[in-house]
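User: I need a structural model of NlpC/P60 domain-containing protein from Bifidobacterium felsineum for a docking pre-check later this week. Nothing fancy, just the predicted structure tokens so I can convert them on my end. Input:
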Amino acid sequence: MKTNSVISSVVAVCAAAACLFAFAPAASAASVQETITSTKSFPAYTQVRKNFAAEATSTDVADDASWGDVESLNVPQTKSQAEKDAEAQKKAQEEAAQKAAAEQAQSQSQSDAAASRNNSRSALSSYSDSGSSASAGAAASIDRAYSLIGGSMDCTALVTKALAARGINFHGWPEDYVNVPGGYVVTDGSLQPGDILIYKYTNGANGGLHYDHVALYVGGGKAIHGGWNGSNVALAGILASKLTTVVRIP
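Assistant: Understood. Predicted structure tokens for NlpC/P60 domain-containing protein:
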């Protein structure tokens, strides 16, 4: 009796185990089926790709078409160091030549001025040797005026320097030289070497308006003028038509 109970228990256990294994695959299959269903719930996506190779080869270009050559490019041209040195040397030579020409011209001008002064002194020497009655003071003034020919100064400065050579210290406007110490106005129209010539209304030839110029008479119808044609000292005529006053110093 006891044995039958044990056997019944074993059979019951086996039957329960069989039922358990029978239901397990069904549950597993159901789980797999649910997963697949959820994956298929996403919408499908399709991407269309263009044929880039076909598009690139679809352009037809003429065989003689120009796309720009190297020669057509505006590229700054750089010079070699040798070319730069050659240009610098050429420029230096040109500047040296110009400087030499300017120095030569200046030297020539100075030589001409010196020659003019020498000629003037020669004329003065001839004048002194001619037995003129000019005083020693007048001769000193004339000698000083001749030495200034070719220089740059106005008319009043010239006459002032000529007077200083004979010991007279005086300077003023052209009309003021009528009052030179020791001098007097000549009224008979005569001229002697060393006389001071005062001019009026020279129309700007050697100054402005009114009494605008003064010079030193040296004889032979010539006078030495300062400020001649701008600023130079020169030997020229007496401008008789503009001469207003003659002042003589004994």
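Before docking, keep this in mind: The two ends are 195 Å apart (CA to CA).
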